[in-house]
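Notes to self after the Tuesday call (sharing in case useful).
The group wants a holo model before anyone commits to mutagenesis around the pocket. I volunteered. Ligand is acetoacetyl-coenzyme A. Logging inputs and output together so the record is complete.
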Amino acid sequence: MTQRTALVTGGTGGIGSAIVRYLAGQGHRVATNYRDPDKAEAWRKAMAADGIEVCMVQGDVCDPTASEAMIRAIEEKCGPIDILVNNAGITRDTTFHKMTYQQWTEVINTNLNACFNVTRPVIEGMRARKWGRIVQISSINGQKGQYGQANYAAAKAGMHGFTISLAQENAKFGITVNTVSPGYVGTDMVMAVPEEVREKIVAQIPVGRLGRPDEIAHAVAFFTGDQAAWITGANLAINGGHYMGW
Ligand code: CAA
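Result:
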């Protein structure tokens, strides 16, 4: 397999860490951004202990200027970015009639506007080199909606609109753009849902359990491989059968 440079935004999180591990395991140079230096250093050491050296650059994906600087720093350290995984994401769950403007904008900025901020400085290089793989990590809740997540569901549905437009614009440049929509995976984000609510959600999953981060990473690796060149504009739902759209 050709060794490439991959950027996974929010790589220090639950699903992000699994994607970093998986792509590194395939022999790619993997980079991620971070905001909190102390948390990042602890994470970097844990990855290094497993033999995974990650190129880490500080940068807030909500800020377009900081994102561009972050991309240039990664390119300087690790080479041109051929694989981009827009994974950084947060929740601010509450019913819409109680939602503040801040809860709305924080979620839209981190989950959706970040796709612009990070992809924009990367896309021209991919087009010039005539090769690229872009994957958005969306969510089951962008497909089916979720009580308490008007902000998150709007952002996650928007990510797929972004995918299918970019897929059309960049197909002839050897760039594929796809979405992975995880269901409820056993990460800190899902474990923050109150236990009694979470138990009711798990009861709705035909496979009968939460997903594992590596089960999401596996799909990202599938989309980013050379052999996936004819798959673009797709949305792969990985949710234990919780939502079966088509
Ligand atoms: N459908 C219908 N009614 C519901 C409901 C649902 N899914 N969930 C809650 N309600 C009802 C409750 O039964 C309750 O009704 P009564 O007042 O008649 O008793 C009412 O709504 C208020 O519910 P809560 O007391 O729970 O309200 P709250 O304000 O304390 O909390 C909430 C609301 C924040 C939405 C909370 O229910 C919650 O956290 N829900 C889970 C949201 C969720 O799934 N988040 C996913 C996070 S993980 C993630 O996002 C990753 C991913 O991509 C999958």
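Two things stood out.
The longest strand covers residues 175-182.
Residues 91, 93-95, 139-141, 146-149, 152, 183-184, 189-190, 193-194, 197 surround acetoacetyl-coenzyme A (CB under 6 Å).
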